[in-house]
Amino acid sequence: MLSISRAIHISMPFEECSISHKGVLVVGGIIVDLIARSEKFKVVNDNLCFPFDSKITLDQLSQDTGGSAHNLATNLAELGTTTYILGSVGKEDHGEEYLRNLRIHGAITKYVTLKEGLTGMSLVFLYNGEKTVLTSRGANALLGEEDLNPEVFDKIDTMVLTSLISQENMALMKKAIEEAKKRGIYIITNPSMSMVNHRPEELKHAMHNSQVIIMNGKESMLITGEKDVDSAIKKLKDYGAETVIVTLDVRGALVLDNERTFRVPSYKVKVVDTTGGGDSFTAGFIHAKYHGYSNEEAVKFASAVAALNIVTPGASTDLPSENDVVEFMKTAEFLEA
C-alpha cells in the first residue's frame, strides 16, 4: 500500500505533523438509517413532498448504520487512524449488531454502552441524491456523564464532539471537555443542525474550548446570526479556534486559519447519496492532519474522502481506504467555481 505520507512527498508539500499520533475519541450518535427512494417524491418550494392520505410504493428501501459519531468513527478507522467511539445503543433491538458493524470497520467500541430501550433510528428520504431525515434519537439521548470512562483519555490525543442533544448528553459533553482540557487533548467540534437548533449555548461552550470547528454553511449562519458564510466564519473564529472550516456542498469548503481565509473546491463526481458526506469530510481532515498535511492539503484530502462517500448509497457502505483516496486524488478533477 502506498502510504499517505509518501504520497504527500510525491504530490504535495509535507509539513511536520501538528497533531501527535496516538488515538481519536469520537463522541456522539449511533443511528440506524432506513433509506427510502421513490419517484413519487416531489420537491415544492424546497420542501420534500408526497401525497397525503395515500400509500406509496417505494422504489427502494435499504438499511444502514449511521449517526454522526458512527459515520465519523468508521471512516477514520477505515483510513487507518486508531479510533475509539463513545456512544450508546439499545438493548431491546439489534444494538450488538450495530457494534459489530463498527468493529468490522476497525473502530474500537469498548466505550459504547448498551441502554434500555431502542437504538436511535432515522428515516432518510432521498431525492436526486439529496436527503430529508426524520430522527428518533432513542438510546443516544440516554448517553450521560456516568458513561464517560476517564481511562480513555490516556489513549487519545484528539477528541471529536459530534451531535449531542439531550440534557444527559450535555452533562457528558461538559465533563469530557473538562477532562480533555486537563490533559491538553486537541478538541474538534463538528455539530449537527439539531444541536445548533436545540443546544446553541452549550454548542458555543464547546466551540470556545475547541482548536477546530467544522460545520456546514446553514449551521454556521444560524449559530452566528449572520446572513452569509463569509461573515459567519469570521464570527466563528472569534470563539478562539485555531481553524474554522465551513463546508458548502458542491461549492467546496471555506477555511479560516490564522487570519487567512481560503476556499477549496469540491471534486467532480456523480452524487448518489449525500448521507454521511459531512462526517466523512471531517474524518478525512483529521486523518490527514495526523499524517502531516497542512490545513489546505488536509481539506483537499477531506474533500476527496467525502467525494468517494457520496458516490455510493448509505453512510457506511464502500468506505474508502487511505490508498483509495490517494489514488483518487491523482486523477480527480475539481468542480469549477
Automatic annotation (TrEMBL):
Domain of life, source organism: Archaea
InterPro entries: Carboh/pur_kinase_PfkB_CS, PfkB_dom, Ribokinase-like
A GO molecular function held by the record: kinase activity
Stored Pfam families: PfkB
Domain Carbohydrate kinase PfkB residue range list: 24-321
Signal peptide interval: none
Entry-linked Gene3D superfamilies: 3.40.1190.20
Keyword set, alphabetical order: Kinase, Transferase
Family statement: Belongs to the carbohydrate kinase PfkB family.
The name this protein goes by in its record: PfkB domain protein
